[in-house]
Design brief:
The chain is of the alpha+beta class. The protein is 30% helix and 20% strand. The protein is built from eight helices and eleven strands. The strands form two sheets. Strands 1, 2, 3, 5, 8, 10 and 11 form a seven-stranded antiparallel β-sheet that branches. 43% of the residues are buried. Bound molecules: 2-oxoglutaric acid. 2-oxoglutaric acid binds next to β5, β9 and β10.
């Protein structure tokens, strides 16, 4: 069985205290990009381990040009951590979970699920959307860590954010689609939310709230845009009655056995970081 090298495990679990400035930026804008969370050796290692699993688990057979907009946006492989210990060590990184806890200003976080999002060469744009539309969670205190596995210049299609748009309720009934893209493109402009489009350095990670509108451009680089994500929820998150068929599917996939009205505490949703004092 493969094991994580000690130096990598130490880096993954190295403490990181969010500064008051970072927490306040996140509270104001609903997202933050933080540089130098890991050095290049850790990101290169993550790239090798995650790419291997994506290659193994990917079952997309349809040629890119025959897929719909969502299908063209990325290969999407979920809950990789359940397959191998080396991926589990990455997804269970105490360092990233501590940052999520600090940004959410809570006492600890649980895993909702992970997913690898690999935008293929010639892969299309990711439409504007908010993730929380999909989640049967009775809290808005959620965050996704978006971890590029290589430097991600603009031609790779890095994640873009509509700063502060988690305060906008219009469009929250829309799943990711051409319709969400068209509606939000104009609504976010009309409401004057700042559209943040920036490259990512190696070791830079973004964190965005569940209701924050975000998108990505197409990948016109000729290389795969490889990204790993972890979605965290407040550790005391309660399951709510699903409000659409996607939330029902999420309940079955990501927290099977959880009960409406009770804290989500299934084997698939471990607490990944908890403050000690
Ligand atoms: O990677 C992308 O293109 C989209 C990512 C995304 O929507 C997310 O992580 O919530």
């Amino acid at each position: 069985m493969e094991t994580t090298p000690i130096s990598i495990k130490e880096a993954l679990d190295q403490p990181y205290s969010v500064t008051p400035e970072q927490a306040s930026f996140f509270a104001q804008h609903g997202f933050i990009k933080i540089k130098n969370i890991f050095d290049a050796s850790v990101i290169d290692y993550m790239n090798i381990v995650i790419s291997k699993e994506v290659d193994r688990l990917n079952n997309q057979q349809i040629p890119l040009e025959e897929r719909d907009t969502y299908g063209k946006a990325f290969l999407q492989i979920m809950n990789l951590w359940t397959h191998t210990t080396v991926v589990k060590d990455i997804v269970f990184s105490k360092r990233i979970a501590q940052i999520a806890t600090g940004l959410m200003q809570t006492n600890g976080v649980r895993l909702y699920h992970d997913q690898a999002l690999f935008k293929e060469p010639k892969g299309g744009h990711t439409p504007w959307h908010a993730d929380q539309y999909y989640w049967p969670l009775a809290t808005e205190n959620t965050v996704t860590a978006w971890i590029p596995l290589q430097a991600t210049p603009l031609n790779y299609g890095p994640l873009e954010f509509s700063a502060g748009s988690n305060k906008l309720t219009a469009g929250r009934d829309k799943q990711i689609s051409d319709e969400s893209q068209a509606f939000l493109e104009s609504e976010l402009k009309n409401q004057n939310f700042e559209h943040v489009i920036e490259p990512f350095d190696v070791g830079e990670i973004s964190f965005h709230r569940g209701w924050l509108y975000h998108r990505a451009g197409p990948n016109v680089s000729g290389n795969m845009r490889k990204v790993m994500t972890m979605i965290y929820m407040d550790k005391d998150t309660v399951l709510k009655e699903p409000e659409n068929h996607n939330q029902l599917a999420d309940w079955e996939a990501w927290c099977p056995g959880a009960t409406v009205g009770a804290t989500i505490n299934t084997p698939l949703n471990p607490v990944l970081y908890e403050k000690t004092s």
